[in-house]
Amino acid sequence: MNDRPTSDRGAVLLWVALLMVVLLGTGALAVDLGALHVERQRLRSGAEAAALAVARDCVSGNCGPATSTAGTWAPRNDPDGAMGVTLVCGEASGLTPCPGDVPVSDVLDGAAGWVHVATRTARPDGSDQVRLRLAPLIGALGSTSLASRATVAWGGLAAATTVPLTMSVCEFQALGGNPSTGAFPSGRQYVYFHGVGGSGEPGVGRCTASTSGQDLPGGFGWLTAGTCSLDVRVGDWLNASPGNSPSQSCRNQLTSWRNAVIQISLFDAESGSGSGGRYRVAGIA
Question: How many CB atoms lie within 10 A of CB 112?
Fold first, then answer.
């Protein structure tokens, strides 16, 4: 029986060694890249949770100890608590303004306020490095640092599906609401869709110039809609439905509005009269 030449065995061993290096390298990349992906997701979740927690305080009227709040919520998204908050800033009472290199998306235009939180890996030994498990075996990078960030803005709704009824911003503010910040009136309040402008009639001040108390001649706040809902957006002009009664479809749904949360548009200008009347949407409550 003939033995395989030594040179052939050497070639086979060389290929096996090369393949082992490739396999080890692939395994190292798969394991370590997976670990880095998980770590990035935790950092992002931590930044988002911290930003939401601070924003919730800001909307309530007091941003509080924002850095402390962020530092409490961010690590809860990492089983090891290996996460640190490196920056808390924004535009609201009590927040430190952000430095110029912080990217803020255009979607924040018109927001009542916003907060930005940045997170970074923070190990118990004080290091900010993510330890890689297999990469060092093939001479690759043994550790790296990761960071993430999140921005949360707040303010009034810009668009919504509402009931086909509108009230003036003037009335809403007189009740204690603010459409620009998203604040709502507190306690039990009453809205009169007729009688807020007439002398001696009930209502909240004189939010209209009409002596009859209507928002516009022949209009009682009802809007033209095919059903008992209407998609509206701030800046839209909505057509008035003349008369002081809702449509038949809405009458059938009035009982379902009791003790329910509904959206209603707020207007800051009106024009025309009757079926030719229009309201300009300034906000949504």
Answer: 18
Residue 224 near residue 240, CB atoms below 8 Å: yes
Give me 118's structure tokens.
Answer: 């940045």
H-helix segments, the chain: 6-59, 66-73, 169-174, 248-251, 254-257
From residue 202, give the alpha-carbon distance in Å to each of 205, 211, 219, 245: 9, 13, 17, 19
Residue 134 CB neighbours (<10 A): 16
CA-based end-to-end distance of the chain: 93
Among 84, 112, 119, 87, CA closest to 101: 87
SS3 category, 178: strand
Written as six digits, the tokens of 133 are 């498990």
Reading the chain (285 residues) residue by residue, the pLDDT tens digits are 555 566 666 666 666 666 666 566 565 556 656 667 777 888 899 999 999 999 999 987 789 899 999 999 998 888 776 788 999 999 988 899 998 878 776 556 667 889 999 998 876 555 555 555 555 544 445 556 788 899 998 877 788 999 999 998 988 888 888 876 667 888 888 877 776 555 555 555 567 756 667 788 888 889 998 888 899 999 999 999 887 777 777 888 888 888 888 899 999 998 998 889 999 999 888
- DSSP reduced 3-state for 21: helix
Around 45, how many Cα atoms within 13 Å sit in the side-chain half-sphere?
A: 13
